[in-house]
Design goal:
Length: 108
């Protein structure tokens, strides 16, 4: 999923799709209407916790995903010589680090 929208537009769209006023969304999310207005106008950026709470109050969930970015002029096989220079223990550490990163990314 490419992030092409800011938090304010996400909150505004979720609120409108749910048929809620700013005041009603704020009440459901246990915050002030002025907070919702400032977020929607882009005056302030909510924390991820606040964004999730506002979207949930409108009946939506946010599902961020990580997508690898292609590196121009590079190929994954370009890293093979560096990997071959590693000791067996260093290779195991590298695999463990990648596995740990992948596990964290799946939870995000």
């Amino acid at each position: 999923m490419a992030w092409t929208r800011d938090a304010g537009s996400l909150v505004r769209e979720a609120r409108r799709r749910a048929g809620l006023s700013q005041r009603e969304l704020a009440r459901r999310a246990r915050t002030a209407q002025s907070v919702v207005a400032r977020i929607e106008s882009g005056e302030t950026s909510p924390s991820s916790e606040t964004l999730s709470r506002l979207l949930a109050a409108a009946g939506f969930d946010l599902h961020p995903e990580l997508w690898p970015r292609p590196v121009e002029g590079s190929h994954m096989l370009d890293d093979v010589p560096r990997i071959l220079r590693l000791s067996p223990e260093e290779r195991l550490r590298e695999v463990a680090n990648v596995a740990r990163f992948a596990a964290i990314a799946r939870r995000a």
